[in-house]
Amino acid sequence: MSSSPRSNRLRPYSPLAEDRSGNVLMIFAFAMMPLTFATGMAIDYSSAMRIETRLSAAADAAVLAATSQQMMSQSTSDAQARAREVFAVTAGTIPGLTINLADSSQLNIVVSDTAGSVNVRTATVTFAGTSANAFGGVLGLSTLPVNGVAGSTAKTAPNIDFYIMLDTSGSMALPTTTAGLKQLTNQTGGCAFACHSTNDATAKDKSGKWTDYYGVARSYGIPLRVDEAKLAIQNMMQVATSTSASNNAAYRAALYSFAASDARANNSWRSLAALTSKLSSVSDASKNAETSLYYNNGCPTQTYCNNDQDTATSDAITRINAIMPSPGNGTKMQGDSPQGMLFLITDGMRDEYRPGGKPEAQIDANLCAIIKNRNIKIAILYTEYLKESLSDQWSKDNVLPNLYKVEPALTNCASPGLFYKVSTDDDISAALNNLLLKAIASSRLTQ
Predict the structure, then answer these.
(1) Which of 77, 142, 190, 338 has the greatest number of CB atoms lying within 10 Å of its CB?
(2) Beta strand residue intervals within 289-385, DSSP E
């Protein structure tokens, strides 16, 4: 049977109708379009993320600049201007970024101060810009948003007034080293204290001259606690000066010495340096602190005797409490006052009233509480009262049985963490400097 004319006409094209290889090209071509756009958008997105990361770093730098120690002494408006300057330096160098730094909806910088126990500064930077797209414009998406927030809080080191009380009673004239204790007891026939009593027991000094035990110690150059404490105060003022500069804080100090309570005694309360910002003058004044000078045992002067009541700690604390004004927060805000801090350097043996013929021994914690309740911190350097130094029978009978009360009472008197003890052969200067730095650290938080 012969084919129809229509069939014959289609036969030459039948191979094309049967060939389907071109479909793959068409499908691939159509698939390439979204893949290309997806790849392009990924590149745009990555670029935007890089810009946002750089802006976040700029915002971090800006808030840190506003809360730096240098700027903490400046006004909030100055700190805000500094933060804007730091942010702009980085933002202006980022290609593809569009942001109007004058528009608060695109760059908002807030710096504020809050007064509390310390001066708190908070800085916040909020940014919102756009990143230009290289591929997204084809789809009508010419930019991607970039935004973020950075914040920083800093607390300034507060201004502090330091009130230093140095115990200059006779028991503070104890050698600071084992060698010194041995040497003095050998020279005095067993007494470990360098008693400054001009008409009592004497011994030969280094030149062979008869003198009191204090003169003996001096002649041999035996270091005594009261003398080492004076050197420690001088070093303390140097550390306070350098710390004040590094912390950008204002420090003032005052210095007092105490022993007996009655003004008729030549070793009673003395103001060696009134409160001053010139810390070097307090250092110089410490050289004038003198250990107790007695006419003879029990009598500070020839005409006045006090039964050797030589360590009037309660009298001293009451006096210093009346001198110290109400403290402030130590901020740089107008009208605020410095924080207050009392430093007590003592061997801790209280001897004022002699109830029943015995010394009270422990410090009166109630008087300490009055000061601490006024938000004035108390730091105590305890130069340990050694039982080995109690050579006479009266001390063994009356002081030794109460010696265990001394350290716990001092610890209770001190503010938390501000009690430090030194004993024989310890470095009193290093201890006092450590106590000072701990006291300053307890009153501040840094960025």
Answers:
(1) 338
(2) 339-346, 376-383
